[in-house]
Each structure stands twice: as C-alpha cells, then as structure tokens.
Write a structure and sequence with these properties.
The chain has helices spanning 56-63, 83-91, 145-152, 189-201, 204-212, and strands at 3-8, 37-38, 47-53, 71-78, 94-95, 98-99, 104-107, 131-138, 157-165, 174-175, 184-186. The chain has 213 residues and is α+β, with helices and mostly antiparallel strands.
C-alpha cells in the first residue's frame, strides 16, 4: 500500500488528469508516484492536506461520513465573527436542502496565524472590511461545504486550508506540519501501521459480526 501526505497548493485540482480548457493545474504536476489517488477532495481554490493512497478501502474509510473522521480547516473569513455565528456553525446549518452535522468552530489560536504563509496569488483584500481566521472541524465533506456554511452565517470564506485529518485512533492526527505548499512525503512506518489497523477495524465482516452479536 502506497500512501502519501501532500500539501496541495492553491490552484490545483485533486486529480491526476487535467481538465480540458481548465486554468487549474493537477496533481501529476507535483506527485510522480503511480497509482495513488486522493482520499477526499479539496477544491482547486482550497489548500492543505491531502492523503493520496493506492488502497481503495482506505479511500472509502477516510471519506465516508459514517466513519466520522474529523477534518480541521483553517478558514480566513471576511468580517468579524460573533458568538452567535460560531454557534450556528457548531449546531449545523441547512444548505441546499441538507442539514449539516454538528461541527466544531472557534477563533484560530493566535499562535498558529504567523505560521500561515501568504497565498500565491494573494487573496483579495478590501480595506474597509476586516478579516479573521477561524478553526472549523467537520466529520463530513460535501462539495464546498465549509464555504457554504460560513457564507450562510454571513462570513464569506476568503481562504481555506485543511490542516489536519484525524484517524480517530487516539493518536496524533495527520497534519501539514513540515510540508510546504506543493511538497509531499510518504507516511512513516508507524503511520502505515496505524492505517493498517484502521482498515482492520473497518472490516465489513467484523462489523457484520458485531451487528449480529
């Protein structure tokens, strides 16, 4: 099983095949390992952590909401978030006829903000409107969900970075730490062992046995 962690830059599709007449790059411009695919997507205008793997079951495990893997995003929004807006995000919001699951939402720790480099190209800035960073965690990943959630509470997203993916095994989540935009690394032996255990725990036969018991 080949598994990589990639810091996807802005302007890159979460796929290895370019789209016709698209202005976006694709993953093959950054990763030269064959037969790996993204376990969960990030929009081209979003940045951050992507898990790339050759294991189809692992792709399903990390993307299926029923497994409940928390994904944490650093989100730069337009405006000044108020407590009631953060609570709305936590409680869940109806967008496009769908009620989102409860989320985690808070101001981003001030110590983390200096570690966020400038985006290339930079975000648009309007001098009269302040911007702030939030940390938002979800257990699902519908199309442009974070952007739609923040827009629904009056806080348009300007920049979106997926920072961590939690394997929910009690150990440290996978993070962007040590990865510059466009850089990737293979998982360590210890991380690969965690992924193997994760797949054992999601074995359909074992789950069926638990249900019958």
């Amino acid at each position: 099983m080949a598994t990589l962690l990639l810091h996807k830059p802005y302007g890159v599709l979460s796929q290895f095949t370019p789209e016709d007449n698209s202005r976006w790059d694709c993953l093959r411009d950054f990763v030269d390992i064959p037969d790996v695919y993204a376990a969960g997507r990030l929009d081209a205008d979003s940045e951050g952590l992507l898990v790339l793997t050759s294991n189809g079951r692992l792709q399903q495990q990390l993307t299926n909401p029923r497994f409940g893997h928390w994904r944490t995003y650093w989100v730069q929004v337009e405006g000044s978030p108020q407590p009631h807006q953060l609570q709305q995000l936590r409680d869940g919001i109806t967008i496009q006829g769908y009620r989102t699951r409860p989320a985690k939402a808070a101001w981003l720790n001030a110590e983390a903000i200096p570690t966020i480099g400038e985006r290339i190209p930079p975000i648009r800035v309007r001098a009269a409107i302040p911007t702030h960073w939030l940390e938002i965690s979800l257990q699902e990943g519908r199309n442009r969900q974070v952007r739609r959630m923040t827009a629904a509470v009056g806080l348009p997203t300007l920049r979106l970075i997926r920072h961590t993916i939690d394997l929910m095994d009690g150990d440290t989540p996978f993070t962007l730490k040590g990865l510059e935009p466009g850089a990737w690394r293979t998982v360590t032996k210890a991380e690969e062992g965690r992924l193997v255990q994760l797949l054992k725990g999601s074995n359909p036969r074992k789950q069926a046995g638990r249900q019958r018991g």
